[in-house]
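Annotators were shown the component list below and the corresponding predicted structure, then asked to write short factual statements about the assembly.
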Amino acid sequence: MIKLEHVYKRFNTQQEPAVADVSFEVHPGETLVLLGTSGSGKTTTLRMINRLVTPDSGQIYVNGRAVQEQHPETLRRSIGYVLQDNGLFPHYTVAENIGVVPALLEWDKARIADRTDTLMEKLHLPPAQYRDAYPAQLSGGQQQRVGLARALAADPPVLLMDEPFGALDPVTRASVRREFQALDELQNKTVVIVTHDVQEAFELGTRIGLMDSGRLQQLGTPAELLFTPANDFVRAFFREHHLLLELKALTLADIKAYLPPTAEDDSYQAHVLPGTTSCWDALQAAMNTEGVLSVDFSTEVFTMDSKSLMTALSSRKHEASNKQ
Amino acid sequence: MESQQSFFDFIQQQSGKLLEQTLQHIGLTFISLLIAVLIGVPLGILISRKRGLAAPVLGMAGVLQTIPSIALLGFMIPLLGIGPKPAIVALFLYALLPIIRNTYTGIKEVDPAMTAAATGMGMSRRQLLYRIQLPLAMPVLLAGIRTATVINVGVATLAAYIAAGGLGEFIFGGIALNNTHMILAGAIPAALLAILFDGLLSLLQRVQLRKARMPLYALPLLLLLLSSFYLLPAATGGRLLAGFTPEFMGRRDGYLGLKHVYGLRLRTVVINDMIMYKAAYEKKLDLISGSSTDGRVKAFDLVVLDDDKHIFPPYYAAPIVRQATLDQYPELAPALNRLSGMINDSIMTELNYRVDYLKQDPAAVARDFLAAKGLWQPPKDGSKGVVRIGSKIFGDGYILANMYKMLVEGYTDLQAVTKTGLGGTRICFDALVNGQIDLYPEYTGTGLLVILQEPQAVIDSLISDPQKVYAHVQRAFAARYGIRWLPPIGFNNTYALMMRRQQASELHIKKISDLKDAER
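Structure shown to annotators:
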């Protein structure tokens, strides 16, 4: 869907390249997170995909076609774009902001109004109340939701998000993020998200690309980055949050082998989790159900509690380090 | 209350002229503003895109802004003549800087996140400009237009100097004629216009906060409407075009006398005396009101028409001094009197020619003259006190003030300070009465007609005899103001009508009466 080949970019004012020899591919329907500290080149990489920045060398393909060969305005109208501090136009109402791209695509008014209302409802912004409001009258979380709705308005197959939750306080951030994950509009969309927040990357990303000094240090699933780091930088980057990230990176299926066998007579628990649940979510669920859970691995059902989960985790880790 | 009453009387009497001048003023302001917006806004947009051009363009506009307005008007004359054209161009140049700068600043200060968002959404550069940058820059842009409007309302008063009309005709006429009502009749409407337009534009600015697109259309319409007020002065009257100073236009011994005594019906425009001679020389004007000893009469080869019906009263120059100063320094009067009878008309014209046209330093010209007459002495120590010598802004004044300074410092122990360039009669005389200066050279005719403003009967009984006029002003000034007229210097700087020598001989005009035939 999106493909970068040996992309290189250096800004005139700087000595070091902002992006050096970056190549990766984002598959249709996948969410790729570009993770890194500020100045790592992740935003520049993102902006080269919709041609806000022109690479010095290398090729970028969207939908199988090189972006340089596409008309920039047409290209951008087919790509949803969410900015960090939401980038809403202060002199446009909420409805006008959301309708920007459809208007550029010259949809008729009724269709735009219809689409705008649908998106506002899905994002919990009652249209009657907020349609004619101006961005300044909304809270930060609401503004970010409008920004998201604007990016989704023309139903683009590709979505680029630059620190989409970066300007929000931690509480609002978690709730907007949860809403984002639950949004049906995002099904089947190819998404590239730029963030510096490690937890966010692990929560949202199908795969994560960790960048530093303009180079892609490692690209892989959260678990790959965590358990088979490609170099010292990658290892050091996750050290601080390692346990938390492990819990988020590993699903119950990953640790199934280390869970204690379930006794025959154990009662089947009312709360059943699918095997694809992350260990983190399973721990949270365990807290709400007085410690005991059933896990449905489709072939068999396990019963476990938080203690057996942690034991399984540490024996998995032990085995992994013995292998090395 | 009496003066209140008569001010409104004046307004009532002159309401036709006031309305005409106000409309001209509005027209001048907004035609130039419209052109400045049409050129300044695109220029501002251009330099916001090509940042390399920003410094030179803003620099150029800034330099234009610093040129003194009267000088800028002067530069325009050889290029565009006199009348509305140079005035509009000059006003346009003044309005340009605030408009370019605010357009540029407004666009430059649009949050880069906005531009990135708009571009990222897929807006073209044109869409970005019209939908995002201009609406967001609009408050700053409108502030620039407000500034330019207020500047233009002010500078447009100077249009009266170059025959373009406007409220300046009343203001400068009033200053020259010592007529407070006339000054106020020009100044108050001008101030009201500035306040009114500033208020209207600030209203527009506030409206735009809610809906940014409206002023984009409203503004050009408003400008067009207001520009249409400027109706070019209807060209009626004879073949000869006369340019008179505001002062001359309002005086009995000026334009009014030409109308009543000579019965002339001239096509006239109001113009500043500094520009008048050059305009006559460059054939923009045919007839001008000048002063007979002006150096430019010689420089521009003009001829003075003979005043065969004697409407111009004698204007003999003499120093007028505060009696208090004379009492304090008895040696002052003899020093000043050394110049008495030394300068006749042709000498004064020659001296003025050297200053006005050959651009020699008035102090050097004064010194050369005194030295040639054997009057120059090196300054003494100047320890006894300070005498302040004033002068009007015309050539005579500078030279005479310098001569008096040298005489005072050469023959007494006083130190002399010159305060030249005190504007017209009114400013100079007020400064003298209020003790800001101690003396300045004045003309007998001015004293009689402008300062004393004697009843017509008194004037008629005196005017034909220079001696009687001098005696009258000497007596009246001493009694009313405590100011003494010292003996006259010698020359008579009277009003005169003048023409280009060539045109006068072609039309066989020698005296003012001859104009009547030429008019037909």
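Statements collected:
1. The mean pLDDT of chain A is 86.
2. Chain A is about 40% helix and 20% strand.
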